[in-house]
Amino acid sequence: MKTRDEAEMTGDHLPQPQETMSDERLYKAIHRAVNDALERHERNRDHDKSHVLEALLVLCCIWLIVLLIDYFSYAPWFNQFRYSMWYHVPSSQVLQYEDKPPADCDFLTSPVGYKGCHYKKHVDLQPASSENGHKQTVVVYWSHEQGN
After folding, report:
1. CB count in 10 Å sphere of residue 138
2. Which band of pLDDT confidence, cut at 50, 70 and 90, is reported for residue 48?
3. What are 30-39's pLDDT values in tens digits?
4. Could you write out the three-class secondary structure of 129-143?
5. Given phi > 0 = left and psi -120 to 50 = alpha, else beta, which region is 39?
6. pLDDT in the model for residue 12
């Protein structure tokens, strides 16, 4: 008696209907498994991309907040609010004599280029005295500094 493999090689064996049916079921099962695996892979890849985009969005928001705080740090109204909260004094006791530092150290000020100087912001808390109505006063000012 010939084995099945030998019969297939000689062409004596024709597939039975039940063998064809099991081959179709096997094909469908493999096809379904491969498709499921591909779908899971696509979902995971999209999910990983969304995490990267979320992280980039958070970093951009943090960067924007830092830029806004730096931009508003020159505004007298912002400094009055900020330092009145920080030092627990009324906003009328926060004094800022210049709205922003002088521009003579800016890169684009004539002559254009690096000037080797910058202005540093200082905040001084003056104790209560008869000069300032027996209240603490916060003074905001800029000083000219050489170097970086």
Report:
1. 21
2. low
3. 889 999 888 8
4. CCCCCCCCEEEEEEE
5. alpha
6. 56
Continuous segment of H or E residues that includes residue 50: helix 17-72
Is a pLDDT exceeding 70 seen at residue 107?
A: yes
Measured distance CA(114)–CA(100) in Å, rounded? 19
**pLDDT over 70 for what percent of the chain?**
82
DSSP β-ladder status, 137-146 and 94-96: parallel
Half-sphere exposure of residue 129: CA atoms within 13 angstroms, side-chain side: 6
Beta bridge partners of 95: 139
Helix, strand, coil shares, percent, the chain, to 5? 55, 15, 30
Do β-strands 117-126 and 94-96 pair in parallel, antiparallel, or remain unpaired?
unpaired
Closest CA to 140 of 114, 125, 127, 122: 122
Mean pLDDT for 67-90 is 87
